[in-house]
Design goal:
Number of strands: 0
Strand content: under 5%
Number of helices: 12
Helix content: over 70%
Largest sheet: none
Number of domains: 2
Radius of gyration: 19 Å
Length: about 220
């Protein structure tokens, strides 16, 4: 692992849905033709017992995720990733672990490996819309990286398509909004301005910083 550490603020404010909560939600959705989410959370808050024990692989895996987050928040990436790998050996479809692994690998520009995690999250249809949308963002980023490297317009179009799929899951996802603006700009489509305006509405300060430091003005396709 490189000495250069990536920011881990994401895990301080992470929006993961516990596996226990996910299993209860699946059951609720299956047994209610007209689901009411307020009613669901009211039931959960009554401490309804769950069918997952701490001794199960799922329980152990979920515990490891939080230990991994503690390491990552302290910039101890190698140790954090080691625990994430242990988590995935216990529970290969743990969406929180896949999400964290995907994000760390993307930070280190290991895009192909990050994309593999994204594909897994998309295939299992992660219940957390934030995680699901971020999986599409990572896949789109990998496509865009390769499009720039090969100067391939078709890959750029695929990246745009992938971005749109992510926005269909979470239309207010900031990463996807600015991603779409950048792709449209590279494709010389004027509507990129509309997406920059949307980014400003979501987070003005963040967008000002993005436009000053990260916006790619050079046409790379």
């Amino acid at each position: 692992m490189e000495e250069e550490f990536a920011t881990r603020d994401l895990y301080v404010r992470h929006k993961v849905l516990s596996r226990e909560m996910r299993e209860n939600l699946r059951l609720y959705m299956q047994t209610n033709k007209d689901p009411d989410m307020k009613e669901f959370f009211k039931e959960v808050n009554k401490n309804r017992p769950i069918n997952i024990t701490e001794e199960s692989n799922v329980g152990k895996a979920y515990s490891l995720v939080y230990d991994a987050i503690e390491y990552l928040n302290r910039h101890m990436d190698a140790q954090g990733l080691e625990l994430i790998e242990k988590t995935l050996r216990l529970d290969p479809e743990n969406e929180e672990a896949l999400f964290i692994k995907m994000d760390v690998l993307a930070d280190y520009k290991r895009f192909e490996e990050a994309e593999a995690c994204a594909e897994k999250l998309i295939s299992i249809e992660a219940l957390n819309p934030f995680i699901y949308a971020e999986a599409y963002f990572t896949k789109s980023t990998t496509l865009l990286f390769n499009a720039f490297r090969r100067k391939d317009r078709q890959l750029c179009l695929k990246a745009l398509e992938c971005t749109d799929e992510g926005l269909a899951c979470d239309g207010g996802n900031y990463d996807l909004v600015v991603q779409k603006a950048g792709i449209l700009y590279q494709l010389s489509r004027r509507e990129y301005r509309k997406w920059i305006e949307k980014a400003y509405k979501i987070d003005r300060k963040r967008t000002e910083m993005f436009m000053e430091h990260y916006w790619i003005k050079e046409k790379l396709i």
